[in-house]
């Protein structure tokens, strides 16, 4: 009897080992299956939605009343920023849209009034017409001297920066909130009255 008991315990043990192995196999197999299914879902979503990048372009820029006194600047910028959503199935919801005019890397001249939130339909291009006013903007000595030189030369080079919160909407379902940053640089604005007509559009680098 003892040998049989030993044998049966032996069988029981090896049976337990076998079933543990098959449980592990089953878990691994279902994890692999889940990965494959998730991959297929992502692939089908990608093929159906075909997401394309959103494009920002400064298509018009005019500066008026540019004056520099000491290290303070007055100026009024009229900008047109074209926002192109080329997607067939994705619409956009924008929040906290801000357009700023910078002189150099870190000297902010003016902030534009933009509709803070709006919805952009699919395959839509919208031109945002904004006015940004610098009122006694303190820019520091160096930037002020450079700006005076630019004004004397008849052309000011600024950076236009766009910042917005954005949600992508596909089939009525909105994605989470992403922070979009666009930098359009350099935007060369001629100061002569006829300069606006020869303005060359400046595409923006957009990061999400
Ligand atoms: C800017 O405009 C303000 C009035 O809005 C005026 O007091 C100031 O002297 C102006 N500064 C420059 C640099 O022209
Ligand atoms: C783009 O969408 C806006 C509404 O957000 C609409 O007023 C405008 O007409 C649309 N433009 C085109 C070209 O469809």
Automatic annotation (TrEMBL):
Gene Ontology CC terms, in alphabetical order:
plasma membrane
Q: Late embryogenesis abundant protein LEA-2 subgroup domain location, by residue?
A: 80-183
Spell out the InterPro entries in the cross-references. Answer: LEA_2, NDR1-like
Q: Does the keyword Mitochondrion apply?
A: no
Which UniProt keywords are given for this protein, alphabetically ordered? Membrane, Transmembrane, Transmembrane helix
* GO term, biological process aspect, one: defense response to other organism
Where does the record say this protein resides? Membrane
Query: TM segments?
Result: 27-49
Q: Which domain of life is it from?
A: Eukaryota
Instruction: Report membrane topology.
Output: Single-pass membrane protein
Q: Which protein are we looking at?
A: Late embryogenesis abundant protein LEA-2 subgroup domain-containing protein
* Source organism of the structure: Leersia perrieri
């Amino acid at each position: 009897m003892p040998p049989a008991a030993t044998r049966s315990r032996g069988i029981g043990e090896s049976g337990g080992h076998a079933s543990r192995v098959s449980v592990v196999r089953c878990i691994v197999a279902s994890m692999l299956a889940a990965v494959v299914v998730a991959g297929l879902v992502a692939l089908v979503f990608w093929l159906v939605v075909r997401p394309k990048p959103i494009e920002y372009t400064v298509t018009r820029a005019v500066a008026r009343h540019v004056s520099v006194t000491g290290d303070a600047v007055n100026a009024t910028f009229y900008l047109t920023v074209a926002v192109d959503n080329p997607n067939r199935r994705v619409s956009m919801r924008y929040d906290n849209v801000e357009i700023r005019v910078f002189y150099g890397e870190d000297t902010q001249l003016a902030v534009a009034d933009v509709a803070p939130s709006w919805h952009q339909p699919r395959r839509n291009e919208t031109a945002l017409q904004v006015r940004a006013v610098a009122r006694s903007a303190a820019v520091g000595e160096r930037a002020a001297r450079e700006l005076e030189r630019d004004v004397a030369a008849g052309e000011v080079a600024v950076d236009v920066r766009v910042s917005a919160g954005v949600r992508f909407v596909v089939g009525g379902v909105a994605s989470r909130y992403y922070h979009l940053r666009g930098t359009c640089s350099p935007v060369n604005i001629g100061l002569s009255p006829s300069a606006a007509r020869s303005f060359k559009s400046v595409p923006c680098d957009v990061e999400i």
